[in-house]
Amino acid sequence: MIDFVQGGSRRHSDHRQSKASEEAAIEPQDESLQAPTARKPRRRRTRKPAVQRDAPSPTSRAKVAITTRFRQGTADALRRASLERKLRGETLHSQQDIIEQAVQAWLTGNERRRRHSDVSSET
């Protein structure tokens, strides 16, 4: 290009060289900056098999969310008991199941005590 400005003549081979050097100056030298020439195949999502859950019994009622906080030791023991039950293959192994069973047992025992104290106070 300088030859042209200075009035010199350019040969056909010189034109190819200068064009190649101009393109090299424009394109980035680092291959990581260049656009990829071949597209990578897209990863396909595979569906996980549906977890088969036990059908709720006709006597069961809808669950209600209750939030509670436990001491660290209690939470650790609950987590451990849940895992042990799961490893033994028990159907009721979740932390929810364990808490529900414990509260039901407590309520049943508390109800008996209340009835007993009501009967005692009447006599």
Protein architecture, described:
The chain has about 120 residues and is an all-alpha fold. Among the domains are: about 25 residues, no CATH class; about 50 residues, no CATH class. About 55% of the residues lie in helices and about 0% in strands. It has 4 helices and no strands. The longest helix is centred in the C-terminal third of the chain and has 28 residues. It is elongated. The model has no long low-confidence stretch (mean pLDDT about 75).
Question: Keyphrases for this structure?
Answer:
4 helices; 0% strand; 123 residues; mainly alpha
Quick structural summary:
With 123 residues, this protein is mainly alpha-helical. Among the domains are: 2-26, no CATH class; 72-122, no CATH class. The protein is 53% helix and 0% strand.
Fold blueprint:
Elements: H1 2-6, H2 12-26, H3 72-88, H4 95-122
User: Strand share of the residues?
Assistant: under 5%
Number of E-state strands: 0
Q: Helix segment count? A: 4
Report the sheet with the most strands, covering strand number, pairing sense and barrel closure: none
Low-confidence stretches: none
